[in-house]
Specification:
- With 531 residues, the protein is α/β, with parallel strands linked by helices.
- The chain contains 19 helices and 23 strands.
- The strands form 6 sheets. Strands 10-15-14-13-11-12 form a 6-stranded mixed sheet, sandwiched between helices. Strands 18-23-22-21-19-20 form a 6-stranded mixed sheet, with helices on both faces.
Length: 531
Amino acid sequence: MSDLDLAPLRRALISVSDKTGLVERARQLVDASVEILSTGGTLRALNEAGIAARDVSEVTEFPEMMDGRLKTLHPRVHGGLLGRRDNGEDRSAMADHGIPNIDLLYVNLYPFEETVAKGAEEADCVENIDIGGPAMLRAAAKNHAWVSVCTDGEDVDAVLAAMEAHDGHTTLELRKRLAAKTYARTAAYDAAISNWFADTLEDASPAWRAFGGKLAQPLRYGENPHQNAAFYATPENRPGIATARQVQGKALSFNNLADADAAFELAGEFDPADKAAVVIVKHANPCGVATHDDLAVAYERAFAADPISAFGGIVAMNRKLDADTAGELVKIFTEVVIAPDADEDALSVLSGKSNLRVLLTGGLPDAKQSGWLTKTVAGGLLVQERDTAMISVKDLRTVTQREPTEAELADLMFAWKVVKHVKSNAIVYARNLSTAGIGMGQTSRLEAARLAVRKAEATAEENGWDEPRTQGSVCASDAFFPFADGLHAAAEAGATAVIQPGGSIRDEEVIAAADEAGIAMVFTGMRHFRH
């Protein structure tokens, strides 16, 4: 066979849950002399629109039953999909048993993913597990040498275009592409179902684990121009880059999407009803974070925290973008702005920077919502729960002679939220609800502390400050200090309070160093490694 091998299309079976565009596409098929078989609600919709369609039960001579659970699982349906037109035995069997050829299958599956996303009861979720649909789709895709299989309206449009170009026939190349898409769709559907079952069973390590997604957009390349890449959306429907509407700017790159996700997830840690939060990210790490009652002030403070790194960065916020904040944003080169929403005046201001990518997500990610994260390794996948662990002030355990002040406690809680999103080893200095210096991704905790100080010193010089903002700051560490040297570095930087998990065999040594320096230190009892 060549890719130009043509197959006639004379009969179609249509059974869809999403009936968008159904009538228009079915009418085009009828106009092309295609006989239509259908079922249930799809059949009613077609008949009500005046489109001639036969009930599948007329073909099977078997009634639809069990509330629609049983209607297409029949040899006259699957035989029509699977029968090889060039195989004598298949043709003879079809003739002997009254099995008609089915040349086009158009099925979109019961909305299982959407039902789960709405938080439906378990019984409703189970009822939305499609059985006949996947079975027919897989059968038609297997017999793609003769059958065109469609999982959505765009597939039908492609078939109609091919029929118009080839006198009522489809090409083998098209049928192969449709088959490939179909198997990916049924795989993603089954993955969603199996993961839902695992969640309901609270099984973190099922024997088989599958993940699937729908193409959201192809990307020009990956992290580097020589790497192919694409973005796929999963059924999770978490507010963020997957739900975002791009209102202006150039096409998003792989790195843009990764950094925007990192920035927005951190912005989601802060309750917008409490304070406005602005996060600036560069290469997946926050370089400036601040909260304030006013969004524009929060942006100014986040930018001032590391203006050198902020150039060409990603800016995320937890509140609706306003014109005042937009006016500050356009003063420097920024790659992406991501926010739950924006007012028209803000969009008007941003429109002056035509290359600036603006993403509006429609909501904030819930930092407490569980979910699964995956990372590929050679020959497999690492799968873990999203880090949703949180603490409150009452969970802190003061281990030094001095208790932290109220102002220090506020900064400690702020810094702890930020350090959770910094690559390990991670150290964050913060003052007045703004980052003062961030050290990330170092092979030793001491070096992370020193890096944060060096960045704070460079920032002070850039801003023309008399001293780095680590003076009078608090310090957060994503994991325990294994030695007192990290605590000494924080004290030398001017930190007055420290928040860390604790749990080192040298905790007493670190606590003694803090007491000697007059530093208040609290333990959280949890760590936030991020690799």
